[in-house]
Write a structure and sequence with these properties.
This protein folds into two domains: 2-280, UDP-N-acetylmuramoyl-L-alanine:D-glutamate ligase (3-Layer(aba) Sandwich); 291-420, Alpha-Beta Complex (Protein-Tyrosine Phosphatase, Chain A). It has helices spanning 2-10, 23-31, 50-63, 92-106, 113-125, 175-183, 199-208, 252-267, 274-280, 297-302, 315-325, 344-348, 371-377, 390-396, 411-420, and strands at residues 40-45, 68-71, 84-85, 88-89, 132-136, 154-157, 190-193, 215-218, 223-227, 232-237, 240-245, 291-292, 306-309, 332-336, 356-359, 384-386, 404-408. The protein has 421 residues and is α/β, with parallel strands linked by helices. The chain contains 15 helices and 17 strands. The longest helix is centred in the middle third of the chain and has 16 residues, at 252-267. It is globular. The mean pLDDT is 94.
Amino acid sequence: MKLQKILNHLQKLHPKEIDLSLDRIFKLCQKLGNPQDKIKAISVVGTNGKQSTINALFSILKEANIKCNVYTSPHIQKINERFIFNNEKLNDEELIELFEEVEKINDNNPLTFFEALSACYFYKAAQYPENINLIEAGLFHRFDATNILKTNLASIICSISKDHLDWLPKNQQTIEKIIFEKTSALLNSNIIVSKQNSKDTTECIKKTILKNSSKKLFFNENFSYSNGKNGFFYYEDEFGSLKLPLPNILGQFQLENISTAIATLRHLKMNIKDNDIKNGITKIESIARLQEIRTGKLKALVKNNRLLLDGSHNEDGSRVLNEYLQTLDCNKHVIIGMMKNKDHEKYISFFKDISSLTTVDIPNQPNAISGKELKEKFKNMPNLKFKESIQEAIKSVPLKENDLIIITGSLYLSGEFLNLN
């Protein structure tokens, strides 16, 4: 209760949920002793694949006995997920102590919630100056609270596509503008560019970072992977090739994220051995990214059928999700809930050959679209119905042997599912 009370207070320090500016976070961090200047960081920007790439980096670094601090957003179940130091999540008491100390120094000055959390992260991270910090950028990056570092080890550009368009003026809701916001303010160090969803996107990124003096690595130019047989794939860069076991996470797109993580760590020459990479990619912890649910109350409702959870919520996420679903020879039943500000029709357009589609409400999320309204937007989809809750939706699916259920459309829906399960 005390942690929630502090969080409620932090959420009221600014009238807006998001206010794209760096002034407030700079002022607070100056009071905190500029902790952001005392850490070693790998910054991760983009639209999709950021957390998956960080998960791969983290797993490999842990295998190499290199201590990490990790800052990601949003959290799925508990806010503690956003604060990892010395390879461990902070517990409630540690979070309370951290939040109270920073808030006392802030002295009730205006601050958005994400700015407050970011300042807390930097303040704590400075206590571990030798650790590697894996920092996920929030909205866009140029005016994001994580963009106050003077130096970093590297910046990773994950797949960029259209999302959060409601934060851009109507005449600027373009992929070119999004690329500018995400990449034009990257630091001069090393830039590693993951696989993009089109050549045009890659070329636009190249133009935007042209004057950045960083060493630049591009997927398929400086590093790549290829599919192997019998449970292996092959990775290659300027340092040579690696025969690697398939990771413990699902989806072809994860090989792209993992390859980007490997390219980054090998380029930085962090004394990581080949075996650290081989073992690390088989131990990746991933929540709500094509996560297979094997136990729990809701899993029990589907008995021996497969149950997948995926928090994808934009067109590129839908595309890569459906590339994976197309590889499965079974009936697919989709349960979906989404936020209001997403392109719902574009998201669902990638779903082909599904056996049923059930829309649901996302409880406790005032910015979610109602399941009934979502059903109306999807009215051209076959076997469509609405159910108020995830439980009702799962129970309503006419499962046959070998059928699969996937729950998708929102990380907030994923969090609700995991809490119920």
